[in-house]
C-alpha cells in the first residue's frame, strides 16, 4: 500500500497509517516545514487592555454569540469582557490590514463557519453590499455549510477576480489551488501548527512575493468547540465549557504562536496595530504579488557560497560508500583500486 499526502506528519495521517499498515516506511520528499523566502509572515497582537477602541466602534462586526449570556459591558473586567473585545477588535484589524496594504486579492482564514459568515457580512456591509461593483471589500465564503454548487461558484468568482477576498475555514480550503494570491489574513491562529504552514503557503507561489498577517489575541478567547454535539454544532447555542457538557473552550493563541515558532525554529516578526510592515533592508520595498526582484542572481550567489561545502560533502559521501563496500559487501576489492 502506498499513501501520498501533502500533510505527511499530521496527526490524522499517522493515525491512518497505524490503522491500515504494519511497520510503514515513511518517505519524506520535502523535509521539515519551512517558510519560502518569497513569503513574509508577521503577527499582530490584539490586546483589548491597551487598545480600548472596541468600546466605541461605529459599525462593529457581529460576533459569534459565545458571550450572549455573559456580562461583557465595559468596566466588568471579566475574561468574558476581554474575550468579546478581542472578537470586535479583530474585525477592525482585518479592515485596517486591507486598507493599509491596499489589498486587491487575498484569502481570509477564520476558525469556524459562523466566523466566516460574520466576516463576509461585515465586509459587504462596510463596502456597500455584495452587488456593489466598487466594493473595496467584495468577498465570498467557502465552508461546509454552503451548498456544493455555491462553493464551486464562489471559488470561481474569486479565481476570475470578480471578488477580492475568499473567506474560508481550514477544512474548506484543503485541495484548492489558486495562483497569484498576494495576501493571507489569519483572523485566528490554527491550533495545528502544520495548518499555519499550509495557510501562509497560499501566498509566495510561482516566485511571487506574498504577505501573511496573523491576528493573535493576547488574552484567552472563548470560542465554539462542538465536540459534544451529535449534529456538529448546527443550531447549537450551548455556551457552557466542554468539561461542563457545553460546546465552548478557552482558546490560548499565545501558546499556539509559541508552538508554531518552535515548529519553524524562528521568531515571527510582530507589527503594531496599524499593520504597517517594515521594509527589509535586503529586499527593500516589496510589491506583493509581483515576482521577487533579482531572484536568479540571489540563487547564483547562494550556489557559489554553498559550492565548497557541497564539494566536501561529496568527498565524504564517496568515502562512506567505499568504506561500506569494503566492510560489508566485497571480498575482492580490486575494483576499488
UniProtKB/TrEMBL annotation:
What is catalyzed by this enzyme? ATP + H2O = ADP + phosphate + H(+)
Q: Gene3D superfamilies from the entry? A: P-loop containing nucleotide triphosphate hydrolases
Q: Which PROSITE patterns match?
A: HELICASE_CTER
Alphabetical list of Pfam families matching this protein: Helicase_C (PF00271)
Chain ranges of the Helicase C-terminal domain: 90-279
Q: Which UniProt keywords apply?
A: ATP-binding, Exonuclease, Helicase, Hydrolase, Nuclease, Nucleotide-binding, RNA-binding
- Per UniProt, what is one GO molecular function of this protein? RNA binding
Tell me the function of this protein: RNA helicase.
Per the record, the domain comment is: The Q motif is unique to and characteristic of the DEAD box family of RNA helicases and controls ATP binding and hydrolysis.
State the similarity comment: Belongs to the DEAD box helicase family. DDX1 subfamily.
- The name of this protein is ATP-dependent RNA helicase
| Organism placement in taxonomy | Eukaryota, Metazoa, Ecdysozoa, Arthropoda, Chelicerata
